[in-house]
Amino acid sequence: MENNKGLYLQLFSIHGLIRGNMPELGKDADTGGQIKYVLELARALGDHPDVCQVDLVTRYIDDKRLAADYAQIIEPLSENARIVRIQCGGTKYMRKELLWPHLEEFIERTIRFIKSEGRIPDVFHGHYADAGYVAMQLANAFDAPFLFTGHSLGRNKRVKLISDGMDENSINKQYKIDHRIQMEEDIIAQADLIITSTRQEIEEQYGLYNATAKGFCVIPPGIDLEAFYPFYDLELDSDLLSEEVKQTRYTLRKELDRFWANPEKPFILALCRPDKRKNITGLLEAYGTSKELQAIANMAIFAGIRSNINIMEENEKAVLTDMLLQMDRYDLYGNLAIPKKHDFATEVPELYRLCAESHGVFVNPALVEPFGLTLIEASACGLPIVATNYGGPVDIIGNCENGLLIDASQPEKIATAIKNILIDPQKWSQYSNNGINGVRQHYAWQAHCTATLQKIYDLLPDFIQPSQEKDAMKDSRSSKKSYGARLTNVNHLLITDIDNTLVGDAKSMRQLFNILDDNQGHLAWGVATGRSLELTIEAMTEFDIPVPDILICSVGTEIYYGPDIRHDKGWQKHISVHWKPERIKEVLDDLGFLVFQEAEGQRSHKISYYLEDKNTRLDRVYQALQEHKLRCKVIYSHGQFLDILPQNASKGKAIDYVSYKFDFSPRHVLVAGDSGNDEDMIAGKSRGLVVGNHSEELKHLQGQPDIHFSNDEYAAGIIDGLRHYGFI
Fold first, then answer.
1. For the purposes of burial, counting CB atoms within 10 Å of the CB of 258, is it exposed (0-12), middle (13-18) or buried (19 or more)?
2. Read out DSSP for 273-304?
3. What Å distances lie between residue 156 and 38, 366, 470, 496, 698, CA to CA?
4. Contact present, 11 and 57 (Cβ < 8 Å)
5. Backbone φ, ψ for residue 697 (5° rounding)
6. What are phi and psi of 264, to 5 degrees?
7. Using the 8-state DSSP alphabet, how is residue 683 labeled?
8. What is the arithmetic mean of pLDDT over 346-364?
9. Which of the following CATH numbers is that of domain 483-724: 3.40.50.20, 3.40.50.300, 3.40.50.1000, 1.10.1420.10?
10. pLDDT: is 616 or 295 the higher one?
11. Hey, which residues does 271 pair with through a beta bridge?
12. Which homologous superfamily is 233-441 in?
């Protein structure tokens, strides 16, 4: 990144159906108002003078069913804002609920991207639960502030789905709701700041959780006032009536007139995803049962983007099918328009203005609306609004006095509110003008960004604002580097076994530590050991070993990072595939010559035994495991220790994982060991080193490329290896 002057912010919205040009809002359940929110937030923050770069990070999708836009790794949004796409879980599109198992991969690849950029983000901001988890883990890795905006929360969703008639098993199967709620509990507890759009979110959504948040801040989102300008501007400013605008208005009018018998009447407009919670059914019942309302006005419902209803998801299919049935039930032909699609970027603003020109009304009939971005957009264009009295609309109408709140569960009240506005020209004009003025005062992106950045400054007390005419620090955190900052700012890595490799000669070990300290600008180091974390720390204390950058423990089944011993949960998740520890113990219990090691030798992903006189006995262990189709790894070392590990685990594989995660070239990774349980890491992709005091178990590796057998013993052999490979 060339420009280091100003804040570097990363926003996360994981699901992937995000693009800067013509976003496909309403395409499916993942393409609601949150997409528009994060796109406009990224652009607005990028325009702020104190910000040098904003990345909106989402999932990379290369799927022939979808546009090629989603396979563009970097997509510019503005001079200082861009979409960054990170691959995880393959490249095909999958709905967000299915992404949970792949988020560790997303985190790993994002760390690689950050390293390639040469600068660590100052803030990580997650939008929605999955992105909140990703941002939380990255903020933890880099000791940076973590912001969270939930948009919607799992506990509320579960309550609504149960009230809709779904049972808890079905909810969990489809939405992974229990896992989501647990993650939200962790996110709420760890977020440095939670940003909400309304006070209602804090009280009635986050209030359902057990976790105690560090802090909340209500900052309403803004809108693009250049796109959503008042309907009368077209009459007063001829420059706005470009050929593009004329064509858009003509296309929309032609599409609407196709449905209406009397297109000259005012019309009632609704714009939402085809979701049961949006209560389109209630709005159609309100209109369909009121002959008076049908006589006064037409209706237009834009319910997402559809082609073939039969191939859509069940929720959307049910809503759209019911719309068509209600149209027939109430005989709304000639009064109701239900177009198949709309272009959000160009058509929706004109749709609001056409409705306002007809002196119509915008209705959001949702039973619960967390915020209500479409209400602000419609108001900015001069449309009076009718919306639920539960959620964000309460704040919007409270601030702007631009419409009526209703109990959206009662169709007759929806109809009455709409009619009261339509038949009273004075009230219509008052609500129209109030909405235009109120949105400019309360819901501009500039105000949102100013408030957000002020909160960020509070979390970054050392940050020097460019607006104060000083250069920003490249890393605005304290001089103590996080493990993420440390490992993304070096290009060489040493990993060594402890027993009989690092430890054994105190003098050469002290010399090695001095060398590592002198070369810390380009060289990180770690240990890889069969010991548990507790025994590793015990050994480090006993031999006065400083905390390394990386600790690979329990024969490669656990990874931790210094100086705070942070556990790498991604590695644990990676090696858990096909791991069946209880079944393995059950099978091996039948082999009487195996002695189960003491409790401290057992770990969640390592089962350990004593085995004397391996001869045919080791073959019997392999045979028993194979007969029962148990996929695992067997490691025998020092003539007595037998470790059973997950198939994907070992010290070598753990080193490969760390090398990939922090983008170390194998040629720049040196691994050192002395015994059989070091073999897979010494003979792996990296540069191998065998110290002079090695056991016979490693003798067969002599002569292999990229494996250096040192004549020096213990730590002196490590120093020799560092020099041999040019690391120092």
1. exposed
2. -S-GGG-HHHHHHHHHT-HHHHHH-EEEEEES
3. 22, 14, 46, 50, 59
4. yes
5. -60, -20
6. -75, -10
7. T
8. 95
9. 3.40.50.1000
10. 295
11. 302
12. Glycogen Phosphorylase B; (3.40.50.2000)
Q: What is the largest CA-CA distance in the chain?
A: 98
Q: pLDDT tens digit string along 660-671?
A: 999 999 999 999
How far is Cα 246 from Cα 143, in angstroms, rounded to an integer?
52
Mean pLDDT of the chain: 92
Q: Which DSSP string corresponds to 205-251? A: TGGGSSSPPS-EEE----B-TTTS--TTHHHH-GGG--HHHHHHHHH
Burial of 651 (0-12, 13-18, 19+ CB in 10 A): buried
Confidence band, pLDDT 50/70/90 cuts, at residue 471: very low
Q: Which pLDDT does position 1 carry in this prediction?
A: 61
Three-class SS state of 635: strand
Question: Which CATH number is 7-218's, of 3.40.50.2000, 3.90.180.10, 1.10.3210.10, 3.40.50.300?
Answer: 3.40.50.2000
pLDDT in the model for residue 315: 72
Nearest to 405 by CA among 358, 374, 363: 363
* 400 SS3 class: helix
Rounded Cα distance between 383 and 379, Å, is 5
Pairing state between β 146-149 and 193-196: parallel
How many percent of the chain have pLDDT more than 90?
80
Residue 663 contacts residue 116 (beta carbons within 8 Å): yes
pLDDT in tens, 35-45: 989 999 999 99
